[in-house]
Amino acid sequence: MRFLFIFFFTFNSLFANDYTILSFDNHPIHGTLIKSNEMSPFLAIIIAGSGPIDRDGNNSSMKSNYLKMLAEELNKNGISSFRYDKRGVSKSLGDIKSPNKIQFLDYVNDAKSIINHFKDTKKYKKIVIIGHSEGSLIGMLASKSIADGFISIAGAGVDYLTLIQRQLSNRAPYIKSMSDPIIEQLKKNKLVDSVPPMLNNLFGTNLQRFLIDASLFDPATEISKLVTPVLIIQGTNDIQVEVKDAEVLHAASSNSKLEIIQGMNHVFRQASEKFILNLQTYANPDLPIDENLPLIIADFIFDE
Questions:
Q1: Which of 54, 57, 114, 213 has the lowest CB atom count within 10 Å?
Q2: Distances in Å between the alpha carbon of 285 and those of 76, 127, 280, 281?
Q3: Would you say 149 and 142 are in contact if contact means Cβ atoms under 8 Å apart?
Q4: Strand partners, 20
Q5: Can you tell me the distance from the alpha carbon of 157 to that of 219, in angstroms, rounded to the nearest whole number?
Q6: SS3 for 285?
Q7: 15-159+218-303 has which fold?
Q8: What is the pTM of this model?
Q9: What are the C-alpha distances in Å from 37 to residues 10, 73, 151?
Q10: Rounded distance, CA 65 to CA 52, Å?
């Protein structure tokens, strides 16, 4: 998971398929399609957060399975789902030799390709996008005019660079003093030649253009453009994105519903407010996700 949102087939009661979609430029996007036993006409497309997070919510150094758990719980509620490895991640690596070859709009266009693919199958009455963290912005940009609904989970209410600046303000003062000048330069669309080694994972030269491009989009402005029903979900114990972000998005959208889940953190678990204890839940795949989350999503999908 990139620092922006922090440092750093199942065959029993459901039918799951590894499913490949060729994106706008013929890049293969691999994912898991779970078809509801009830042959539900509702499909949820789940978009993961920032960094090398795969379809299940895991990366090479962290196994969490929170996106896999969400998909399985939605299935129990009669909703089919498709979650996928983003371009450059896991099975969707393709022929990409370096992550810095990926542009922010590639993620948006991949999501559009996926939505249009499932629309073209004509198997689903309603296709709803669920964007988590970075996936919230990607999802709202991709959803316009082609999806039937949009759900933001832990989506930022401000642009990338402003969010990173806010997150770093809660770290040690010397981190803030090193990062603020870099962020201000990037906000001016200027690349930074020299970055302190300890900040290279966040502001390395291979990441700067991605951050600049992503920050061109204000989530509040983008969500205001959606004419389909919108659901905004935020946990109170999220150490990466705040309740005020959800409130900003809700205020900007004329047709949104806001759900605040008490005690839920960024990876959908009930967690302590204390940073270290909260962070420990990220790499514990044995912890279930909050029981209210899939129910809130299912209610929204069935009711709208």
A1: 213
A2: 19, 28, 11, 8
A3: no
A4: 30
A5: 6
A6: coil
A7: Rossmann fold (3.40.50)
A8: 0.93
A9: 13, 13, 23
A10: 14
DSSP 232: E
Confidence at 65, pLDDT banded by 50, 70, 90: very high
Domain boundaries, the chain: 15-159+218-303, 160-216
pLDDT (tens digit, 9 = 90+) per residue, 223-266?
A: 999 999 999 999 999 999 999 999 999 999 999 999 999 999 99
Say how far apart CA 129 and CA 47 lie, in whole Å. Answer: 8
Q: State pLDDT tens for residues 87-105.
A: 999 999 988 866 678 999 9
Distance in angstroms (rounded) separating the CA atoms of residues 86 and 201: 19
Question: Percentage of residues in the chain with pLDDT exceeding 70?
Answer: 93
Residue 202 main-chain phi, psi, to 5 deg? -105, -45
Say which residue the tokens 């969400």 belong to: 70
Q: At 48, give phi and psi (nearest 5°).
A: -75, 170
| Mean of pLDDT values over 194-219 | 94
